[in-house]
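Subject: for your reference before the review

Hello V.,

The reviewers asked for a structural picture of the protein, and I figured it would be easier to keep everything in one thread rather than splitting it across files. Below is the amino acid sequence we used in the manuscript, unchanged from the supplementary table.
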Amino acid sequence: MSTGFAIHVALTLLSFPFLPLQEQALEKPASGETPATEESQEEPKTTVSEELIITATRLETSVDTIGSSVSLIGLKEIEERKKTSVLELLRTIPGLEITQSGGPGAVTSAFLRGAGSAQTLVLIDGIRINGVTSGGADLSNIRADNIERIEVVRGPQSTLYGSEAMGGVINILTRQAAGEAQRSLSVEAGSDSFFSGRLALSGNQRIDYNAAVSYESAEGVSAASERAGNTEPDGFENLTVSGRFGFDFLENGRADLTLRYTDSETELDGFTFGVGPTDDLNYLSTRESLFASLKISKPVTSWWTQTLIVGLTDDDILGTDPDTVFHNFAIENQASELTLLADLEPFENDIVSLGYTVERREGFNPQNLDETVDLESFFIQNQWSWADRLYLTTGLRNDDHSQVGNETTYRGSLALIFNEGRTRIHTSYGTGFRAPSLNELYFPFFGNPDLRPESSRGFDLGFEKTLRGGGVLLDITYFYNTFDDLIGFDSATLLANNINEAETSGIEASLRCAPSQFIDLSMSYTYLDSEDKTTADPLPRRPKHRGVISLTFRPVESLSGVLSLIAVQDRIDSDGSAMDDYERLDLSLSYQPTKLWAPYLRVENLLGQNYEEINGFTSPGFVAIAGLSLDF
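And here is what came back from the structure prediction:
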Protein backbone atom coordinates (compact mmCIF):
# COMPACT_ATOMS: atom_id res chain seq x y z
CA MET A 1 0.00 0.00 0.00
CA SER A 2 1.46 3.39 -0.96
CA THR A 3 1.33 6.33 1.43
CA GLY A 4 -0.65 8.35 -1.08
CA PHE A 5 -3.22 5.59 -1.34
CA ALA A 6 -3.53 5.29 2.45
CA ILE A 7 -4.08 9.02 2.84
CA HIS A 8 -6.57 8.99 -0.04
CA VAL A 9 -8.53 6.25 1.75
CA ALA A 10 -8.51 8.24 5.01
CA LEU A 11 -9.73 11.39 3.29
CA THR A 12 -12.43 9.50 1.42
CA LEU A 13 -13.74 7.92 4.61
CA LEU A 14 -13.64 11.26 6.45
CA SER A 15 -15.91 12.75 3.83
CA PHE A 16 -18.29 9.78 3.63
CA PRO A 17 -20.56 9.65 6.70
CA PHE A 18 -23.19 7.41 5.11
CA LEU A 19 -22.04 4.00 6.29
CA PRO A 20 -24.76 1.67 7.66
CA LEU A 21 -24.10 2.91 11.17
CA GLN A 22 -25.43 1.54 14.39
CA GLU A 23 -28.01 4.04 15.74
CA GLN A 24 -26.30 4.59 19.08
CA ALA A 25 -24.07 7.11 20.78
CA LEU A 26 -20.38 6.32 20.95
CA GLU A 27 -20.26 6.93 24.69
CA LYS A 28 -22.36 4.97 27.17
CA PRO A 29 -24.48 6.93 29.65
CA ALA A 30 -22.75 7.75 32.88
CA SER A 31 -23.71 5.86 36.01
CA GLY A 32 -27.14 6.94 37.19
CA GLU A 33 -28.19 8.42 33.85
CA THR A 34 -31.21 7.19 31.95
CA PRO A 35 -30.23 5.37 28.73
CA ALA A 36 -31.20 7.23 25.57
CA THR A 37 -34.41 6.11 23.89
CA GLU A 38 -34.85 5.87 20.13
CA GLU A 39 -36.56 9.26 20.16
CA SER A 40 -33.78 10.89 22.15
CA GLN A 41 -31.18 9.41 19.78
CA GLU A 42 -32.85 11.24 16.93
CA GLU A 43 -32.91 14.49 18.92
CA PRO A 44 -29.69 14.42 20.96
CA LYS A 45 -29.34 17.10 23.60
CA THR A 46 -25.54 16.97 23.71
CA THR A 47 -22.65 15.94 21.50
CA VAL A 48 -21.24 12.43 21.79
CA SER A 49 -17.94 13.54 23.31
CA GLU A 50 -19.24 13.63 26.89
CA GLU A 51 -15.77 13.02 28.30
CA LEU A 52 -13.98 14.97 31.01
CA ILE A 53 -10.57 16.61 30.71
CA ILE A 54 -8.38 18.24 33.35
CA THR A 55 -5.42 19.65 31.43
CA ALA A 56 -7.27 22.30 29.39
CA THR A 57 -8.37 24.34 32.43
CA ARG A 58 -6.74 22.61 35.45
CA LEU A 59 -10.30 21.69 36.48
CA GLU A 60 -12.29 18.60 35.55
CA THR A 61 -14.33 19.92 32.62
CA SER A 62 -16.50 18.40 29.91
CA VAL A 63 -14.75 18.26 26.53
CA ASP A 64 -17.88 19.73 24.94
CA THR A 65 -17.37 22.99 26.81
CA ILE A 66 -13.68 23.40 25.91
CA GLY A 67 -12.75 25.82 23.11
CA SER A 68 -9.30 24.25 22.73
CA SER A 69 -8.59 21.37 20.37
CA VAL A 70 -8.07 18.29 22.55
CA SER A 71 -7.56 14.52 22.30
CA LEU A 72 -7.94 11.84 24.97
CA ILE A 73 -6.62 8.29 25.29
CA GLY A 74 -8.64 6.53 27.99
CA LEU A 75 -8.03 3.44 30.09
CA LYS A 76 -10.16 1.20 27.88
CA GLU A 77 -8.18 2.14 24.76
CA ILE A 78 -4.86 1.70 26.58
CA GLU A 79 -5.84 -1.81 27.66
CA GLU A 80 -7.15 -2.82 24.23
CA ARG A 81 -4.11 -1.62 22.28
CA LYS A 82 -1.68 -3.54 24.54
CA LYS A 83 1.17 -1.06 24.02
CA THR A 84 3.91 -1.06 26.65
CA SER A 85 5.13 2.52 26.07
CA VAL A 86 3.46 5.92 26.10
CA LEU A 87 5.21 6.96 22.89
CA GLU A 88 3.45 4.17 20.95
CA LEU A 89 0.07 5.23 22.33
CA LEU A 90 0.68 8.82 21.24
CA ARG A 91 1.27 7.94 17.59
CA THR A 92 -2.46 8.03 16.81
CA ILE A 93 -3.07 11.59 18.12
CA PRO A 94 -3.99 14.17 15.41
CA GLY A 95 -1.42 16.93 14.93
CA LEU A 96 1.24 15.04 16.92
CA GLU A 97 4.35 13.54 15.30
CA ILE A 98 6.55 11.09 17.24
CA THR A 99 10.10 10.34 16.05
CA GLN A 100 12.50 7.80 17.55
CA SER A 101 16.19 7.42 16.65
CA GLY A 102 16.30 3.62 16.66
CA GLY A 103 14.58 0.80 18.51
CA PRO A 104 13.26 0.59 22.10
CA GLY A 105 14.97 3.00 24.48
CA ALA A 106 16.30 5.30 21.74
CA VAL A 107 15.76 9.05 22.14
CA THR A 108 12.19 10.05 21.22
CA SER A 109 10.81 13.50 20.42
CA ALA A 110 7.29 14.91 20.08
CA PHE A 111 6.28 17.65 17.62
CA LEU A 112 2.83 19.14 18.23
CA ARG A 113 1.36 21.21 15.37
CA GLY A 114 4.88 21.71 14.07
CA ALA A 115 6.28 23.03 17.35
CA GLY A 116 9.66 21.59 18.30
CA SER A 117 10.18 19.00 21.02
CA ALA A 118 11.43 21.72 23.39
CA GLN A 119 8.29 23.74 22.60
CA THR A 120 5.92 20.90 23.51
CA LEU A 121 5.35 20.54 27.24
CA VAL A 122 5.05 17.01 28.65
CA LEU A 123 3.62 16.46 32.12
CA ILE A 124 3.17 13.45 34.39
CA ASP A 125 0.24 14.15 36.72
CA GLY A 126 0.59 17.85 36.00
CA ILE A 127 4.34 18.01 36.76
CA ARG A 128 6.67 18.95 33.88
CA ILE A 129 9.27 16.41 32.78
CA ASN A 130 11.01 18.44 30.06
CA GLY A 131 14.76 18.36 30.62
CA VAL A 132 16.12 21.57 32.14
CA THR A 133 19.44 21.24 30.27
CA SER A 134 18.06 20.32 26.84
CA GLY A 135 14.56 21.82 27.09
CA GLY A 136 12.87 18.84 25.42
CA ALA A 137 11.10 15.80 26.85
CA ASP A 138 12.47 12.37 25.92
CA LEU A 139 9.54 9.92 25.92
CA SER A 140 11.62 6.79 25.31
CA ASN A 141 11.52 5.43 28.88
CA ILE A 142 7.94 6.19 29.92
CA ARG A 143 6.03 2.92 30.06
CA ALA A 144 2.26 2.67 29.79
CA ASP A 145 2.10 0.86 33.14
CA ASN A 146 -0.36 2.33 35.61
CA ILE A 147 -1.50 5.01 33.14
CA GLU A 148 -5.20 5.81 33.38
CA ARG A 149 -5.43 8.35 30.57
CA ILE A 150 -3.41 10.68 28.39
CA GLU A 151 -4.68 14.17 27.59
CA VAL A 152 -3.35 16.28 24.72
CA VAL A 153 -4.26 19.96 24.38
CA ARG A 154 -3.13 21.63 21.16
CA GLY A 155 -2.22 25.30 20.76
CA PRO A 156 -0.30 27.67 23.10
CA GLN A 157 -0.95 26.83 26.77
CA SER A 158 1.61 29.02 28.55
CA THR A 159 -1.17 30.94 30.31
CA LEU A 160 -1.74 27.91 32.54
CA TYR A 161 1.61 26.11 32.33
CA GLY A 162 4.28 28.71 31.60
CA SER A 163 7.45 27.93 29.68
CA GLU A 164 7.68 25.17 27.00
CA ALA A 165 3.90 25.10 26.35
CA MET A 166 4.17 26.92 22.99
CA GLY A 167 2.74 24.19 20.80
CA GLY A 168 0.58 22.47 23.40
CA VAL A 169 0.62 20.09 26.36
CA ILE A 170 0.74 16.31 26.77
CA ASN A 171 -0.39 15.22 30.25
CA ILE A 172 0.10 11.59 31.38
CA LEU A 173 -2.15 10.70 34.31
CA THR A 174 -1.48 7.84 36.74
CA ARG A 175 -4.21 5.32 37.46
CA GLN A 176 -6.25 5.68 40.66
CA ALA A 177 -7.50 2.69 42.63
CA ALA A 178 -11.17 1.86 42.35
CA GLY A 179 -13.27 -0.76 44.12
CA GLU A 180 -12.01 -3.81 46.00
CA ALA A 181 -8.43 -5.05 46.25
CA GLN A 182 -7.05 -6.36 42.97
CA ARG A 183 -3.84 -8.04 41.86
CA SER A 184 -2.64 -8.62 38.32
CA LEU A 185 0.37 -10.20 36.68
CA SER A 186 1.39 -10.15 33.04
CA VAL A 187 4.30 -11.59 31.06
CA GLU A 188 5.26 -11.05 27.41
CA ALA A 189 7.87 -12.45 25.04
CA GLY A 190 8.56 -12.08 21.35
CA SER A 191 10.74 -10.78 18.53
CA ASP A 192 14.25 -9.40 19.07
CA SER A 193 14.48 -11.35 22.37
CA PHE A 194 11.81 -9.13 23.87
CA PHE A 195 10.65 -9.93 27.41
CA SER A 196 8.39 -8.01 29.76
CA GLY A 197 6.87 -8.74 33.15
CA ARG A 198 4.53 -6.65 35.29
CA LEU A 199 2.94 -6.98 38.75
CA ALA A 200 0.23 -4.55 39.89
CA LEU A 201 -1.63 -4.17 43.18
CA SER A 202 -4.56 -1.93 44.03
CA GLY A 203 -6.93 -1.48 46.92
CA ASN A 204 -9.18 0.97 48.67
CA GLN A 205 -9.13 1.01 52.46
CA ARG A 206 -8.14 3.98 54.62
CA ILE A 207 -5.63 4.76 51.91
CA ASP A 208 -6.43 3.85 48.33
CA TYR A 209 -3.43 2.69 46.34
CA ASN A 210 -2.52 1.52 42.86
CA ALA A 211 1.10 0.39 42.49
CA ALA A 212 2.98 -1.49 39.79
CA VAL A 213 6.47 -2.77 39.11
CA SER A 214 7.58 -3.80 35.63
CA TYR A 215 10.67 -4.99 33.82
CA GLU A 216 11.31 -4.94 30.09
CA SER A 217 14.30 -5.96 27.99
CA ALA A 218 15.04 -6.50 24.31
CA GLU A 219 18.04 -7.31 22.16
CA GLY A 220 16.71 -4.69 19.75
CA VAL A 221 18.03 -3.66 16.38
CA SER A 222 21.11 -1.71 15.37
CA ALA A 223 20.47 1.94 16.22
CA ALA A 224 22.75 2.94 13.33
CA SER A 225 21.13 2.30 9.96
CA GLU A 226 21.10 -1.33 8.91
CA ARG A 227 20.80 -0.05 5.33
CA ALA A 228 24.37 1.21 5.67
CA GLY A 229 25.61 -2.21 6.76
CA ASN A 230 25.44 -1.79 10.53
CA THR A 231 24.51 -5.10 12.16
CA GLU A 232 25.27 -4.96 15.90
CA PRO A 233 21.99 -5.05 17.89
CA ASP A 234 21.56 -2.34 20.51
CA GLY A 235 19.76 -3.72 23.54
CA PHE A 236 17.49 -2.06 26.06
CA GLU A 237 16.42 -2.66 29.67
CA ASN A 238 13.85 -0.80 31.72
CA LEU A 239 12.74 -1.20 35.32
CA THR A 240 9.80 0.99 36.32
CA VAL A 241 8.08 1.34 39.69
CA SER A 242 4.98 3.52 39.79
CA GLY A 243 2.13 4.23 42.15
CA ARG A 244 -0.67 6.52 43.16
CA PHE A 245 -1.72 6.77 46.80
CA GLY A 246 -4.56 8.86 48.16
CA PHE A 247 -6.95 9.41 51.01
CA ASP A 248 -9.90 11.62 51.91
CA PHE A 249 -9.78 13.86 54.98
CA LEU A 250 -12.07 16.27 56.82
CA GLU A 251 -15.14 15.06 54.94
CA ASN A 252 -14.43 16.65 51.54
CA GLY A 253 -10.64 17.06 51.44
CA ARG A 254 -8.44 14.92 49.22
CA ALA A 255 -4.68 14.16 49.08
CA ASP A 256 -2.95 12.27 46.24
CA LEU A 257 0.70 11.26 45.98
CA THR A 258 2.02 9.87 42.68
CA LEU A 259 5.47 8.41 42.10
CA ARG A 260 7.24 7.05 39.03
CA TYR A 261 10.81 5.72 39.19
CA THR A 262 12.66 4.39 36.15
CA ASP A 263 16.07 2.72 35.88
CA SER A 264 17.06 1.99 32.28
CA GLU A 265 20.02 1.01 30.11
CA THR A 266 20.22 1.61 26.37
CA GLU A 267 23.02 0.57 24.03
CA LEU A 268 23.91 3.32 21.56
CA ASP A 269 25.90 3.73 18.37
CA GLY A 270 28.48 6.31 17.37
CA PHE A 271 28.87 8.77 14.51
CA THR A 272 31.55 8.87 11.81
CA PHE A 273 32.04 12.14 9.95
CA GLY A 274 31.29 11.75 6.26
CA VAL A 275 29.49 8.45 6.90
CA GLY A 276 26.84 9.04 9.56
CA PRO A 277 25.73 6.82 12.46
CA THR A 278 27.89 3.69 12.74
CA ASP A 279 28.12 0.66 15.01
CA ASP A 280 29.76 1.12 18.40
CA LEU A 281 30.14 -2.07 20.41
CA ASN A 282 30.63 -0.51 23.85
CA TYR A 283 28.60 2.72 23.98
CA LEU A 284 26.08 2.55 26.82
CA SER A 285 23.65 5.07 28.30
CA THR A 286 22.16 4.51 31.75
CA ARG A 287 19.36 6.64 33.14
CA GLU A 288 17.63 7.03 36.49
CA SER A 289 14.50 9.15 36.68
CA LEU A 290 12.14 10.03 39.50
CA PHE A 291 8.93 11.98 39.01
CA ALA A 292 6.79 12.78 42.06
CA SER A 293 3.77 14.93 42.72
CA LEU A 294 1.65 15.68 45.76
CA LYS A 295 -1.77 17.30 45.38
CA ILE A 296 -3.88 18.37 48.36
CA SER A 297 -7.29 19.89 47.74
CA LYS A 298 -9.93 21.10 50.19
CA PRO A 299 -13.12 23.16 49.75
CA VAL A 300 -12.97 26.12 52.15
CA THR A 301 -16.55 27.21 51.50
CA SER A 302 -19.28 26.22 49.07
CA TRP A 303 -17.74 28.61 46.49
CA TRP A 304 -14.00 28.39 47.23
CA THR A 305 -11.68 25.39 46.83
CA GLN A 306 -7.98 25.62 47.75
CA THR A 307 -5.35 23.33 46.21
CA LEU A 308 -1.64 22.81 46.91
CA ILE A 309 0.52 21.02 44.31
CA VAL A 310 4.17 20.06 44.88
CA GLY A 311 6.25 18.47 42.12
CA LEU A 312 9.75 17.03 41.87
CA THR A 313 11.75 15.62 38.95
CA ASP A 314 15.22 14.12 39.14
CA ASP A 315 16.65 12.81 35.88
CA ASP A 316 20.27 11.60 35.69
CA ILE A 317 21.87 10.31 32.47
CA LEU A 318 25.31 8.68 32.31
CA GLY A 319 27.15 7.81 29.10
CA THR A 320 30.10 5.39 29.10
CA ASP A 321 32.35 4.11 26.32
CA PRO A 322 35.91 2.79 26.88
CA ASP A 323 36.73 3.35 23.19
CA THR A 324 36.31 7.14 23.00
CA VAL A 325 36.27 9.97 25.51
CA PHE A 326 33.54 11.78 23.54
CA HIS A 327 30.92 9.25 24.64
CA ASN A 328 31.61 9.63 28.36
CA PHE A 329 29.32 12.15 30.02
CA ALA A 330 27.10 12.79 33.03
CA ILE A 331 23.98 14.97 32.91
CA GLU A 332 21.91 15.74 35.99
CA ASN A 333 18.53 17.48 35.75
CA GLN A 334 16.57 18.48 38.83
CA ALA A 335 13.44 20.59 39.01
CA SER A 336 10.98 21.38 41.76
CA GLU A 337 7.79 23.39 41.74
CA LEU A 338 5.06 24.49 44.11
CA THR A 339 1.66 25.76 43.01
CA LEU A 340 -1.09 27.34 45.10
CA LEU A 341 -4.41 27.31 43.26
CA ALA A 342 -7.68 28.88 44.39
CA ASP A 343 -10.86 28.08 42.46
CA LEU A 344 -13.66 30.52 43.18
CA GLU A 345 -17.27 30.50 42.00
CA PRO A 346 -18.48 34.04 42.81
CA PHE A 347 -21.50 33.78 40.53
CA GLU A 348 -23.55 31.01 38.98
CA ASN A 349 -21.92 29.64 35.80
CA ASP A 350 -18.69 31.51 36.49
CA ILE A 351 -15.44 30.03 37.88
CA VAL A 352 -12.34 32.10 38.58
CA SER A 353 -8.99 30.33 39.12
CA LEU A 354 -6.07 32.16 40.74
CA GLY A 355 -2.64 30.56 40.75
CA TYR A 356 0.85 31.20 42.08
CA THR A 357 3.80 28.98 41.10
CA VAL A 358 7.48 28.95 42.05
CA GLU A 359 10.01 26.74 40.26
CA ARG A 360 13.68 25.93 40.59
CA ARG A 361 15.59 24.30 37.73
CA GLU A 362 19.10 22.91 38.23
CA GLY A 363 21.48 21.36 35.71
CA PHE A 364 24.89 19.76 36.18
CA ASN A 365 27.42 18.47 33.67
CA PRO A 366 30.97 17.96 35.04
CA GLN A 367 33.44 20.62 33.87
CA ASN A 368 30.75 22.18 31.63
CA LEU A 369 27.66 23.22 33.54
CA ASP A 370 26.52 23.82 37.10
CA GLU A 371 23.70 26.34 36.98
CA THR A 372 20.34 27.14 38.57
CA VAL A 373 17.45 29.34 37.47
CA ASP A 374 14.26 30.26 39.33
CA LEU A 375 10.82 31.18 38.02
CA GLU A 376 7.94 32.87 39.82
CA SER A 377 4.53 33.01 38.16
CA PHE A 378 1.04 34.41 38.71
CA PHE A 379 -1.96 33.48 36.61
CA ILE A 380 -5.70 34.05 36.49
CA GLN A 381 -8.35 32.21 34.50
CA ASN A 382 -12.08 32.78 34.14
CA GLN A 383 -14.58 30.19 32.88
CA TRP A 384 -18.00 31.59 32.08
CA SER A 385 -21.00 29.91 30.48
CA TRP A 386 -24.46 30.91 29.33
CA ALA A 387 -27.57 28.74 28.89
CA ASP A 388 -25.57 25.52 28.40
CA ARG A 389 -24.72 26.81 24.93
CA LEU A 390 -21.90 29.33 25.16
CA TYR A 391 -18.66 28.65 27.05
CA LEU A 392 -15.93 31.28 27.27
CA THR A 393 -12.54 30.84 28.94
CA THR A 394 -9.94 33.60 29.27
CA GLY A 395 -6.60 33.74 31.05
CA LEU A 396 -3.55 35.88 31.77
CA ARG A 397 -0.14 34.95 33.22
CA ASN A 398 3.15 36.58 34.12
CA ASP A 399 6.38 34.57 34.50
CA ASP A 400 9.50 36.10 36.08
CA HIS A 401 12.62 34.14 35.04
CA SER A 402 15.73 34.88 37.11
CA GLN A 403 17.93 35.13 34.00
CA VAL A 404 15.75 36.36 31.12
CA GLY A 405 13.21 38.51 32.99
CA ASN A 406 9.42 38.85 32.68
CA GLU A 407 7.16 37.29 30.08
CA THR A 408 3.38 37.85 29.92
CA THR A 409 1.07 35.48 28.05
CA TYR A 410 -2.68 35.44 27.52
CA ARG A 411 -5.30 33.17 26.03
CA GLY A 412 -8.99 32.98 25.21
CA SER A 413 -11.19 30.14 23.97
CA LEU A 414 -14.85 29.76 23.06
CA ALA A 415 -17.19 26.83 22.52
CA LEU A 416 -20.68 27.28 21.08
CA ILE A 417 -23.22 24.43 21.04
CA PHE A 418 -26.39 24.74 18.96
CA ASN A 419 -28.78 22.84 16.70
CA GLU A 420 -30.05 20.76 19.68
CA GLY A 421 -26.50 19.74 20.52
CA ARG A 422 -25.76 18.35 17.07
CA THR A 423 -23.25 21.07 16.20
CA ARG A 424 -20.36 22.62 18.09
CA ILE A 425 -17.98 25.39 17.11
CA HIS A 426 -14.73 25.70 19.08
CA THR A 427 -11.99 28.28 18.72
CA SER A 428 -9.02 29.61 20.66
CA TYR A 429 -6.28 32.22 20.42
CA GLY A 430 -3.29 32.50 22.70
CA THR A 431 0.36 33.29 23.16
CA GLY A 432 3.15 31.09 24.44
CA PHE A 433 6.82 31.29 25.35
CA ARG A 434 9.84 29.15 26.08
CA ALA A 435 12.65 30.24 28.35
CA PRO A 436 16.09 29.21 27.05
CA SER A 437 17.35 25.90 28.40
CA LEU A 438 20.39 25.83 30.67
CA ASN A 439 22.54 24.53 27.81
CA GLU A 440 21.44 27.42 25.59
CA LEU A 441 22.22 29.90 28.34
CA TYR A 442 25.43 28.58 29.85
CA PHE A 443 27.07 25.65 28.01
CA PRO A 444 30.73 26.52 27.21
CA PHE A 445 31.43 27.84 23.70
CA PHE A 446 27.71 27.76 22.81
CA GLY A 447 25.55 29.24 25.58
CA ASN A 448 24.51 32.88 25.57
CA PRO A 449 23.24 34.47 28.83
CA ASP A 450 21.74 37.35 26.82
CA LEU A 451 19.16 35.17 25.05
CA ARG A 452 15.52 36.23 24.99
CA PRO A 453 12.65 33.77 25.42
CA GLU A 454 11.13 32.22 22.31
CA SER A 455 7.51 33.26 21.75
CA SER A 456 4.50 32.05 19.80
CA ARG A 457 0.99 33.05 18.81
CA GLY A 458 -1.59 30.43 17.93
CA PHE A 459 -5.12 30.41 16.57
CA ASP A 460 -7.51 27.59 15.74
CA LEU A 461 -11.12 27.29 14.61
CA GLY A 462 -12.98 24.00 14.61
CA PHE A 463 -16.37 22.68 13.54
CA GLU A 464 -17.76 19.55 15.19
CA LYS A 465 -20.86 17.72 13.95
CA THR A 466 -22.74 14.73 15.34
CA LEU A 467 -24.67 12.55 12.91
CA ARG A 468 -26.82 9.43 12.93
CA GLY A 469 -28.29 9.95 16.39
CA GLY A 470 -24.90 10.46 17.98
CA GLY A 471 -23.27 7.46 16.28
CA VAL A 472 -20.85 9.66 14.32
CA LEU A 473 -18.61 12.49 15.48
CA LEU A 474 -16.87 14.57 12.83
CA ASP A 475 -14.44 17.37 13.69
CA ILE A 476 -12.47 19.61 11.32
CA THR A 477 -10.07 22.20 12.77
CA TYR A 478 -7.92 24.84 11.08
CA PHE A 479 -4.84 26.09 12.96
CA TYR A 480 -2.19 28.76 12.46
CA ASN A 481 0.91 29.44 14.58
CA THR A 482 3.82 31.86 14.42
CA PHE A 483 7.10 31.36 16.29
CA ASP A 484 9.43 34.32 16.92
CA ASP A 485 12.89 34.78 18.45
CA LEU A 486 13.67 31.10 17.93
CA ILE A 487 17.05 30.10 19.30
CA GLY A 488 19.56 28.82 16.77
CA PHE A 489 23.30 28.71 16.13
CA ASP A 490 24.62 32.09 15.01
CA SER A 491 27.56 31.57 12.63
CA ALA A 492 28.65 35.19 13.14
CA THR A 493 29.15 34.87 16.90
CA LEU A 494 29.48 31.05 17.10
CA LEU A 495 26.95 31.17 19.94
CA ALA A 496 23.25 30.50 20.43
CA ASN A 497 21.15 33.48 19.43
CA ASN A 498 17.55 34.55 18.76
CA ILE A 499 17.85 34.51 14.98
CA ASN A 500 15.04 32.33 13.60
CA GLU A 501 11.32 32.62 12.88
CA ALA A 502 8.79 30.03 11.72
CA GLU A 503 5.15 29.57 10.78
CA THR A 504 2.91 26.52 10.80
CA SER A 505 -0.65 26.10 9.60
CA GLY A 506 -2.88 23.24 8.64
CA ILE A 507 -5.97 21.15 9.03
CA GLU A 508 -6.81 18.43 11.57
CA ALA A 509 -9.77 16.26 10.59
CA SER A 510 -11.11 13.37 12.65
CA LEU A 511 -14.03 10.98 12.47
CA ARG A 512 -15.36 8.53 15.06
CA CYS A 513 -18.21 6.19 14.36
CA ALA A 514 -19.74 2.83 15.29
CA PRO A 515 -20.71 0.91 12.11
CA SER A 516 -22.15 -1.81 14.36
CA GLN A 517 -22.31 -2.76 18.02
CA PHE A 518 -19.21 -4.88 17.43
CA ILE A 519 -17.04 -2.23 15.74
CA ASP A 520 -15.64 1.21 16.60
CA LEU A 521 -13.86 3.14 13.88
CA SER A 522 -11.73 6.26 14.28
CA MET A 523 -9.84 8.12 11.59
CA SER A 524 -7.77 11.28 11.49
CA TYR A 525 -5.83 13.24 8.92
CA THR A 526 -3.42 16.12 9.57
CA TYR A 527 -2.16 18.48 6.88
CA LEU A 528 0.76 20.61 8.07
CA ASP A 529 2.32 23.46 6.14
CA SER A 530 5.46 24.62 7.95
CA GLU A 531 8.10 27.14 7.00
CA ASP A 532 11.41 28.20 8.47
CA LYS A 533 11.24 31.93 7.66
CA THR A 534 15.05 32.13 7.54
CA THR A 535 15.54 29.48 4.84
CA ALA A 536 12.00 29.24 3.37
CA ASP A 537 12.27 25.45 3.82
CA PRO A 538 9.76 23.25 5.67
CA LEU A 539 10.61 22.59 9.31
CA PRO A 540 12.57 19.32 9.66
CA ARG A 541 10.92 16.03 10.66
CA ARG A 542 7.39 17.47 10.45
CA PRO A 543 5.36 15.55 7.84
CA LYS A 544 3.08 17.48 5.52
CA HIS A 545 0.57 14.61 5.48
CA ARG A 546 -0.27 12.26 8.34
CA GLY A 547 -3.20 9.87 8.42
CA VAL A 548 -4.39 7.34 11.02
CA ILE A 549 -7.12 4.72 10.76
CA SER A 550 -7.93 2.65 13.85
CA LEU A 551 -10.49 -0.17 13.90
CA THR A 552 -11.57 -1.76 17.19
CA PHE A 553 -13.55 -4.96 16.82
CA ARG A 554 -15.28 -7.27 19.27
CA PRO A 555 -16.81 -10.15 17.24
CA VAL A 556 -17.68 -12.11 20.40
CA GLU A 557 -17.74 -11.13 24.06
CA SER A 558 -14.43 -12.82 24.90
CA LEU A 559 -12.43 -11.66 21.84
CA SER A 560 -11.36 -8.12 20.98
CA GLY A 561 -8.77 -6.53 18.75
CA VAL A 562 -7.42 -3.25 17.42
CA LEU A 563 -6.03 -2.73 13.92
CA SER A 564 -4.25 0.61 13.34
CA LEU A 565 -2.72 2.10 10.20
CA ILE A 566 -0.38 5.10 10.39
CA ALA A 567 0.68 6.77 7.12
CA VAL A 568 3.29 9.54 6.95
CA GLN A 569 4.34 11.48 3.85
CA ASP A 570 6.54 14.43 2.80
CA ARG A 571 9.25 15.10 5.39
CA ILE A 572 12.77 16.50 5.26
CA ASP A 573 15.58 16.02 7.77
CA SER A 574 17.65 18.71 9.48
CA ASP A 575 20.12 18.81 6.58
CA GLY A 576 17.32 19.23 4.01
CA SER A 577 17.50 15.65 2.73
CA ALA A 578 14.28 13.78 1.97
CA MET A 579 12.99 11.35 4.58
CA ASP A 580 11.12 8.09 4.06
CA ASP A 581 7.39 8.01 3.45
CA TYR A 582 5.96 5.03 5.27
CA GLU A 583 2.87 3.13 6.34
CA ARG A 584 2.85 1.14 9.55
CA LEU A 585 0.14 -1.38 10.36
CA ASP A 586 -0.24 -2.59 13.96
CA LEU A 587 -2.52 -5.29 15.36
CA SER A 588 -3.47 -6.37 18.87
CA LEU A 589 -5.69 -9.35 19.76
CA SER A 590 -6.96 -10.30 23.21
CA TYR A 591 -8.93 -13.39 24.22
CA GLN A 592 -10.47 -13.58 27.70
CA PRO A 593 -12.23 -16.91 28.32
CA THR A 594 -12.58 -16.14 32.04
CA LYS A 595 -12.17 -13.14 34.34
CA LEU A 596 -8.96 -14.66 35.71
CA TRP A 597 -6.70 -14.94 32.68
CA ALA A 598 -6.36 -13.64 29.12
CA PRO A 599 -3.76 -14.43 26.44
CA TYR A 600 -3.04 -11.72 23.88
CA LEU A 601 -0.94 -10.95 20.83
CA ARG A 602 0.61 -7.67 19.70
CA VAL A 603 2.12 -7.20 16.25
CA GLU A 604 3.87 -4.01 15.20
CA ASN A 605 4.72 -3.19 11.60
CA LEU A 606 2.57 -6.12 10.50
CA LEU A 607 3.56 -5.75 6.83
CA GLY A 608 7.26 -5.57 7.68
CA GLN A 609 7.84 -2.29 5.88
CA ASN A 610 11.48 -1.21 5.67
CA TYR A 611 11.71 2.49 6.56
CA GLU A 612 13.68 4.90 8.73
CA GLU A 613 11.78 7.23 11.00
CA ILE A 614 14.93 9.38 11.22
CA ASN A 615 17.58 9.25 8.50
CA GLY A 616 20.55 7.11 9.50
CA PHE A 617 18.73 5.23 12.28
CA THR A 618 17.00 1.85 12.05
CA SER A 619 13.28 1.54 12.64
CA PRO A 620 12.26 -1.97 13.74
CA GLY A 621 10.66 -4.22 11.14
CA PHE A 622 8.03 -6.88 11.86
CA VAL A 623 7.69 -7.42 15.63
CA ALA A 624 5.38 -10.02 17.20
CA ILE A 625 4.87 -10.33 20.96
CA ALA A 626 2.66 -12.80 22.83
CA GLY A 627 1.50 -12.20 26.37
CA LEU A 628 -0.61 -13.56 29.19
CA SER A 629 -2.34 -11.52 31.90
CA LEU A 630 -3.66 -12.94 35.17
CA ASP A 631 -6.05 -11.28 37.62
CA PHE A 632 -6.24 -12.81 41.09
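For the response letter, the relevant points are probably these. Residues 3-631 form a domain with the Maltoporin; Chain A fold (CATH 2.40.170.20). The mean pLDDT is 91.

Happy to draft the paragraph if you're swamped.

O.
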